[in-house]
């Protein structure tokens, strides 16, 4: 089977990769929501549509929508006021939960964090003790680390055959530089992916591929 270059835009490719990891049990719902900048409710709706329609649901769902960063100014102002007054001392996660439960503001944790960061409001120390293993900080510059992976799924819809999507995400920016469909996960697919990345973006400083040497 010859490789087929994706025609999906970068944001749609990223959503497809993240949702496939979520459906495969490799990521938690919180990790997926944070990566995509969505609330848990938005993620559940997207996951249901993706499971039913495949990647086409991601394309259709993105067309004509406002960018997720374009929040109304009154919403930003309200979040800041609530964080300073009614929910003073709440960390970002707890505040996000209270905004959804009690205030009708269904925002993702990353959105709440961005609003408060822009307003120079730092998150208080979390209520729970920190876990033994902490999340690694992202690389500071694009091209320093590319994380490659493959996901096997009915990408073209529930009636289609299974295909393996080989792609990767830049650790610093979260962007997908390129991706390719293959019949199976194979070394040639990874080499084609890497060749295309090098031709379009240049040579990355480091690569990380799960379960592969």
Task: Give your account of this protein's structure.
There is one protein chain. By secondary structure, this protein is an alpha+beta fold. The protein contains eight helices and five strands; from the N terminus they run βαααααααβββαβ. It has helices at 10-23, 29-36, 40-53, 55-62, 73-84, 92-102, 109-118, 187-201, and strands at 4-5, 146-153, 163-170, 179-182, 207-209. A five-stranded mixed sheet has the order 1-4-3-2-5, with helices on both faces. It is globular, with a radius of gyration of 19 Å. Mean pLDDT is 79; it is low at 1-7 and 60-64.
How would you describe the shape? globular
In whole angstroms, how far apart are the ends? Answer: 24 Å
Beta strands, count: 5
Q: What class would the helix/strand composition place it in?
A: alpha+beta
Quick one: biggest sheet? 5 strands, mixed
- Rounded average pLDDT: 79
SSE order: EHHHHHHHEEEHE
- Count of DSSP-assigned helices: 8
Oligomer: single chain
The percentage helix is 40-55%
Rounded to the nearest angstrom, the radius of gyration is: 19 Å
Order of strands, main sheet, comes to 1-4-3-2-5
What share of the residues does DSSP label as strand, in percent? Answer: 5-15%
Task: Pick out the low-confidence regions.
Answer: 1-7, 60-64
């Amino acid at each position: 089977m010859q490789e087929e270059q994706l025609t999906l835009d970068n944001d749609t490719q990223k959503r497809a990769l993240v949702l496939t990891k979520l459906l495969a049990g490799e990521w938690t719902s919180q990790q997926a929501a944070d990566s995509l900048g969505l609330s848990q409710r938005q993620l559940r709706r997207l996951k249901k549509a993706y499971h039913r329609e495949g990647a086409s649901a991601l394309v259709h769902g993105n067309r004509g929508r406002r960018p997720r960063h374009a929040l109304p100014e009154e919403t930003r102002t309200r979040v800041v006021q609530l964080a300073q007054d009614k929910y003073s001392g709440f960390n970002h996660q707890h505040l996000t939960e209270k905004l959804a439960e009690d205030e009708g503001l269904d925002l993702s944790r990353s959105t709440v964090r961005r609003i408060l960061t822009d307003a120079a409001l730092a998150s208080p120390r979390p209520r729970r003790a920190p876990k033994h293993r902490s999340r690694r900080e992202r690389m500071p510059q694009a091209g320093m680390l590319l994380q490659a992976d493959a996901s096997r799924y009915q990408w073209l819809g529930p009636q289609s055959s299974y295909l393996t999507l080989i792609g990767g995400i830049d650790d610093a920016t979260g962007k997908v530089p390129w991706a390719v469909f293959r019949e199976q996960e194979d070394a040639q697919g990874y080499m084609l992916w890497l060749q295309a990345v090098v031709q379009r973006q240049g040579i990355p400083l480091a690569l990380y591929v799960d379960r592969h040497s």
